[in-house]
Amino acid sequence: TKELVVAAFGGAYTDAIKKNVATFEKENGVTVTFVPASGADGLAKAMAREVDVIHADMAWAYRGEAQGAFEKLDPAIVTNLSTLYPKARFSDYGVVTNFGQYGIAYNPKEVSPAPTSWLDLWDPQYAGAVTTAGFDAANIELLVLMAKLNGGSEDNIDPGFAKMAELGKQITVFYSQHPQLLDLFRNGEVVMARWLRGRVDWARKQGVELGFAVPKEGAIGLVSTVHVVKDRPNKELAMKFVNYLLSETSQKTYASDLGYTPARAGLDLTGIDVPYGEDVVGSLLIADWKKIVPQMDAWKERWEKEVVAR
Amino acid sequence: MHKTILGTTLWYLGTLAFYVFLLAPLAILVAVSFNPVAMVFPPQGFTLAWYGTILEKPDFLHAAFASTLLGVMTAVICTGFGVLAAIGLRRYDGPLKGPITSLLMAPLFIPAVIVALALFQILFMMGILNNIWTLVAAHVVVTIPYPVRNVMAQLEGFEGSLEEAALSVGATPRQALLRVTLPLLKASIIPSLIITFVLSWNNYTVSVFLASKDWVTLPLQLRAYLQYEYQPFVAAMSTMLIIASVVLLVLVDRTVGLGAMRKRG
Amino acid sequence: MKRPATILLLPSVTILGAFFVLPLIWILILSFLGSSPTGEVVGEFTLGNYARFLTDSYYLTDLLWRTIRLAAVATLFSVLVGYVGALLIVRADPAAQRWMILLVMLPLWVNLVVRTLALMVVLGRTGPLNQLLVGLGIADRPLQLLYNETAVVIGMIQVAVPFVVMAIYGVLQSIPRQLEHAAMTVGATPLAAFRRVTLPLSVPGILAGSVLAFGINIESFVVPILLGGGRVRFMSVAAYETATVSNNLPFAATIGIILLVVAMALLGLYQWAVRSAGRAAPALQAG
Amino acid sequence: MGQISVRDITKVWGAFDALKHIDLDVREGEFLSILGPSGCGKSTLLRIIAGLEAPTSGQIHIAGRDVTRDPVWKRRIGLVFQNFALWPHLTVFRNVSMGLELRRLKKDEIRRRVLEALRMVQLEPLAERLPSQLSGGQQQRVALARAIVLKPDVLLLDEPLSALDKNLRQDMQVELKTLQQTLGLTTVFVTHDQEEALSLSDRVVVMDRGAIGQVDVPEAIYNRPASEYVARFVGEAFLFRGIVSGSGARPMLRLPDGTSVPVEGERLQTGREAVAFVRPEWVELEPYDVHSHTGAPRGVIDRLMFFGQTSDYLVRVADRQLRVKRRPDGPALSPGNDVALICKARVLAAQVDAA
Amino acid sequence: MGQISVRDITKVWGAFDALKHIDLDVREGEFLSILGPSGCGKSTLLRIIAGLEAPTSGQIHIAGRDVTRDPVWKRRIGLVFQNFALWPHLTVFRNVSMGLELRRLKKDEIRRRVLEALRMVQLEPLAERLPSQLSGGQQQRVALARAIVLKPDVLLLDEPLSALDKNLRQDMQVELKTLQQTLGLTTVFVTHDQEEALSLSDRVVVMDRGAIGQVDVPEAIYNRPASEYVARFVGEAFLFRGIVSGSGARPMLRLPDGTSVPVEGERLQTGREAVAFVRPEWVELEPYDVHSHTGAPRGVIDRLMFFGQTSDYLVRVADRQLRVKRRPDGPALSPGNDVALICKARVLAAQVDAA
Ligand SMILES: Nc1ncnc2c1ncn2[C@@H]1O[C@H](COP(=O)(O)OP(=O)(O)OP(=O)(O)O)[C@@H](O)[C@H]1O
Ligand SMILES: Nc1ncnc2c1ncn2[C@@H]1O[C@H](COP(=O)(O)OP(=O)(O)OP(=O)(O)O)[C@@H](O)[C@H]1O
Ligand SMILES: [Mg+2]
Ligand SMILES: [Mg+2]
User: Fold this and answer.
1) What is the pLDDT of residues A51-85, one digit of tens each?
2) CATH homologous superfamily, domain D4-230
3) pTM for the full model?
4) Beta bridge partners of A55
5) Using CA atoms, how far apart are residues A42 and A32, in angstroms rounded to an integer?
6) Do C197 and D146 touch (CB under 8 A)?
7) Is residue D334 lining ligand 2, measured as CB closer than 6 Å?
8) How far apart are CA A244 and CA E305, in angstroms?
9) How far is CA C31 from CA B232, C57, C221, in A?
């Protein structure tokens, strides 16, 4: 039988999109193989035509598109495209499957009143006990947000860095792994952090009591995109697979298993504690990555020098 | 030799301290693996449930299998080549000795990810990706300094007349190597085999670019997994690995021997 | 005996030639090329990457110097601890030896990320070490052991020690005990006998151990990220992130090349120093 | 300062008893040699005295103090290892000087004493060589110099001259003996060269499979061996077993084949069985003559071996072979010749007691 | 099959000439011994013949073929290393069997031959021991067994018996000689035991600081040494330097102190200077008597050394010491006694030629 190779983020994410893949395999007479790859290695595999479908985030999606790695999605096959929120229509070369919400996780015993704004992270009262991750997509969004709040934009990032540098001074540790942040909360070393909603739910399950606040400026959007790799033999099947990811069942799984907001409109998510709806998706902070990507090398260097370095 | 009580006590304390330092993280892992709730130390209960979940993760089992196979191939080839190179370097006396030694050590000092990326691009240009052998070769390249260095070190104190004795009873240099030199180098060869195996077994940076879909290794799976989850399952799996490695090492010991012959006195 | 020597060197030199030297040449070429905003390599010669690195104190001090400094310190301690460990093993009775070796190698089997996370538990504010320190009254409140350079160094030592032990064990094991005994018959205490006989004879092991440890430490990746709390910048992390986050392959290649050159130079210097310092040198070349 | 008492020392390797209840006293300033066949436990005993090997049971006293639990370096002994155990990373000079350096002597003093010791073993010109650049005999002399340079109270030498040619060996013997006598060193000397043992020693120990066969002055060991074993092991002995006959002034031993040899010895009792031995040099060979040699043991020359100072004749007597040393100036004897053995045998004391 | 030709072999270590233009032929089936002082190059020569060391210049031919560039394992030689070089990881049995295994003999055959060899060196019971569990002498015998079990065409033995006691050594000598003769092995035997060399060998080589002093049959080496050096090195020699006087039937050598010794030798010319030597056993010591001993060299007994078969007297003559072997049955002599030296000296052939 034919084989479709899908690069996904791995772990629970792959488990979730795999959940109903048996029916897809049966219907199309194909076996789907998942490999854990994303970012640089994902794109590398795509460029090397080793995979049929890859997952990416905004930055890599733009890079892949720019390097011509992807096939145009064919709306005739990917029929579910029409059911998506407009924000999910990344480009002709890819589509967002799901969103996540970055907000502020906090220890309700230590932080009161509950945070309401991203700027609460800057509250000197909690200096040394707040944290965020390194130079990741969400922090780039935060950086851009700060720039915008202070009169800048993607094209004028200086005010953003100035603000982030202030935050940097109040941070003892930049976390790099979710379990690490969990331990930081558990040990009381951190009382407030920029974190992902799904992870906060997970942390509660691990016995750490946390509050999650969606700042008034809006939650920062986590975006997962999917793309069909160019010049692979089973292009049509790959499109079908993308369509499968956008199907009602799959989309529900993103919510139920991963705590992500589906990209598809009009789902019935009763019983699933996930923010959903036009307004939720609409209010997500998602910057203009087309402008960001070319500047990332420079920004990264600045981040290290201005935010991380003391 | 007589030993004083004080000396012996200090000796045992030293041994204890050394192993506590080395093994403390593992002890934590093993303890946590029985924790029903979360990756928290000290554990708040006892369960074996997490060991059961290992079986529910076919991806991990498959990856463990791939990693094992890859590790074995890497270990055998790398140690084999490395030992030969170390012996060759000892004998070789030409002008290239310095450069070759440096070359054999160089992979240690450049971030493997860069080499892997570059290698990936070269292989891509030559159209020979998707090949287990390129993956093995890349693993061999990044691990080869270990056997070379270890064996070279032991060779420096090697009694040359033992090899000569073999030649004098009619052994060809190859036979002398097999029957005398290699067995006597066991104290560095066996550790080299194990080290190259675990280095390959744990390698992420090379595999991430060079592993094809059929050779998704455990570190790749685990790293992806750790992005989302961190449950005692990880500890349970690590504990299983520890146990498996003990079993394996005992087997190795029984068959080829890890310990060493001691000279009298 | 020249012919067999070349044959012995052939396999490793061949495989290194194809899978290391070739990429290395490509890396070298890359390091002189530019990068497009979206990450494609631009095919024109430039010294810009090197200029960017070598004229910026962030790269020179915060990155390169720190990497070397911490790697060197960690290597020093790794070799110390590893030497002691190897000695403890070699001097144990033969039946215990195999178990002791086995135990030394145990940590290697566990994924480094997992192992480091566990180490973070040990060093954490509520971890066993702090509990012990407070319990014994050595500290009056839990110490901040994590997220600083010391933590990174401790982590690197943890990682490198098994390798050092293995490198030194083989050498120590082939030094006849009798040589130390001979020293004792001329009045050397065990310590003096060790210092004057075993130690110089184990210089090859120390060299091997420090080369490997330095190699491992200088390429440290997981450890500085996790234990450094994102603040302890490291060359290999920078190289990795430059390639996979910033997507500037030529600059990543430049970082790699600079690290390689500096490390090899330091290593040559170190080996030369050890060899000429130890009276061991001529003995090791003879015969 | 240096008398050694070995008290009931036993050493067991697995199932093998290397030393069995050894008791031995070495007097202060004495030169004591240990002789014994290969593997009888000589080195083991020396190593136990030195403290390099722990005895399975028993005690060692040095200078009256129980040192059984004392570590090597506190015993103030010098030891020459049978296999040299030179430090491969140190030059000849440094091999020898190490002990002095450890005593924190002054540089000059060290230099003087090392060169003196090297001169003694005739290696002064090779001071800067490494052991690997020396011949076997040169290495052995370095080992010797390393031990004697310290002038320890007790000197333990495990075959320290075995790799040396005769002349050098004699030089070394003289040097050793002189050193030992002028400094009054208590010396235990393991050797397999009997002449060396007999000529240098105050007393000689003959060991037999982990036990002591006899301890006595050289002359007694040679002329009055305590047992058949010692008689055979030291020098060459040809043994006769027979019945004592013709007592009084001319006691004889009647052998099973009817011939008789004159014997001497204490407490000979006519009619008792006894074992007597002759040394090759006590024997004269004469061309056999039926008339004059009636009753004397008779043999056939098997082979003539040239040895330099004397010639050795291998003589077949009954079905045994006797090696007789003979200066080449007597009547010519060739292989095949019948010879009479003219000798006086000596009855083994122990054997008489046992009877 | 096994004659060896050593052609103009030179070996230089750095600035040191270990061997200088050595030429030597070992005949097929010959038992050739090499004698020489420590460090004269014996082992080096053997190692060059074996192919373990490359000569700086010169050729080695074995069985007529130039093997100078041949590797060791193609030369079909057996070698006993001076330092044994046993494989520490293999049992005694496996140490010995290795060579046979390499020849792919049958298991049974190997077993039979190994046990036979071990029996020969009296180590059969220790077959399963590791070398580290053996005594020095036992190790040496394993090394010997390892070489002889192969029955190679050429056997090179570097002091193979130095760690053995006299009896065992004699046994081994006999075994070696028997083996060598029955199989016709060409054997080169390095030893520092002159008696061993003289008694076992067909011919003896005496080496002197990297050169050959003399090659000849044992008897000639001993009685007609080619040089002062050989005379002194082999056996003991006391040399006289003087002027030949009283030619004809009773040639004498007049010594500088006015005394004379009777000499013998070829081509003695009255009035010429000559060097003559005596062996200790050629000398009789008599209590000095002014009347009967006028003109004879005179000495004083310095010391008496007991040696077993004979006693050694150290006699001071002028300012030199002469060691005389004497059977203890002559007139009693004690240290301090004046003695006359009654002997006939032999003029060194070479010295006469040179004069
Ligand atoms: N690697 C070397 N460098 C310098 N000189 C050396 C080296 N090896 C040996 N020699 C010298 O060469 C000479 C000959 O050595 P060789 O081992 O042949 O002596 P030998 O006759 O066997 O002596 P012995 O009876 O003591 O064993 C010695 O004087 C020795 O010091
Ligand atoms: N580790 C061991 N295990 C078993 N037996 C051993 C061990 N070490 C020594 N032996 C045995 O102990 C006995 C005594 O050994 P030792 O070395 O004392 O003999 P030796 O008298 O010095 O002999 P040599 O004259 O050959 O050197 C030998 O028979 C030897 O085989
Ligand atoms: Mg011994
Ligand atoms: Mg020699």
Assistant:
1) 999 999 999 999 999 989 999 999 999 999 999 99
2) P-loop containing nucleotide triphosphate hydrolases (3.40.50.300)
3) 0.89
4) A226
5) 17
6) no
7) no
8) 109
9) 43, 19, 21
